Amino acid sequence: MARERADGTPQRRSRSIAGASLGRMLSLMAFLPVASRIPDYARLVTALVLDERMPVDRKVLLGAAAGYLVLGRDLVPDDVPIIGGLDDLVVVVLAVDLFLDGVPRDLLDEKLVEFDIDRVAFDRDMAQIRRLTPGPVRRTIRRVPGLISNATDTISQLGLGPRLRAWINREDPIT
């Protein structure tokens, strides 16, 4: 029988702490098989980055994620308990997911065979990881590669490439 508040409206039951902890443990245990394949997936991503057939906008996306990690400026400071380190993990997961999402199918198939990665297990792992990301976040993030591609096309069409490279590589005068 549902409990009622003083005003007569039904009161939702909260999950017990033990039930919530058990649920989190089961969710984490589901990722153990994925975690065991991380070294294989790291070799796969590295090989794809080095392959000239891989779209440049996807490589830029991974570079941007690496830059985010290296810079040390976080969306959520690392000293915030529990969630402080999650933003780094989320950035890496989203970047790798988008990177892999942009791999031409024949190239991905070739690399999976080369690294002896089971296609069914790979697809299952990617689907499991994608379920962690809320739909609105995934839809927004999916626009990033197109934005990168448009920006690089615009820079190229305007002839700004050499100027931009010179500006990036400019040495600050010693004072």
In short:
The chain is an all-alpha fold and about 180 residues long. The protein is about 65% helix and about 0% strand. Mean pLDDT is about 75; it is low at about 15-20.
Notes on the protein architecture:
- This protein is mainly alpha-helical.
- The protein has ten helices and no strands.
- It has helices at 17-29, 32-36, 38-50, 56-71, 86-101, 105-114, 119-130, 135-141, 144-157, 161-169.
- The chain is globular.
- Residues 14-18 have low confidence and may be disordered.
pLDDT averaged over residues: 76
Low-confidence stretches: 14-18
Task: Please give the oligomerization state of what you see.
Answer: single chain
Globular, elongated, flat, extended or rod-shaped: what is the shape?
A: globular
Structural class designation: mainly alpha
Fraction of helical residues: 55-70%
How far do the termini sit from each other? Answer: 77 Å
Report the β-strand fraction as a percent range: under 5%
Q: How many H/I helical runs?
A: 10
C-alpha Rg, in Å?
22 Å
Number of strands: 0
Along the chain, the helix and strand elements come as: HHHHHHHHHH
Query: What characterizes the major β-sheet?
Result: none
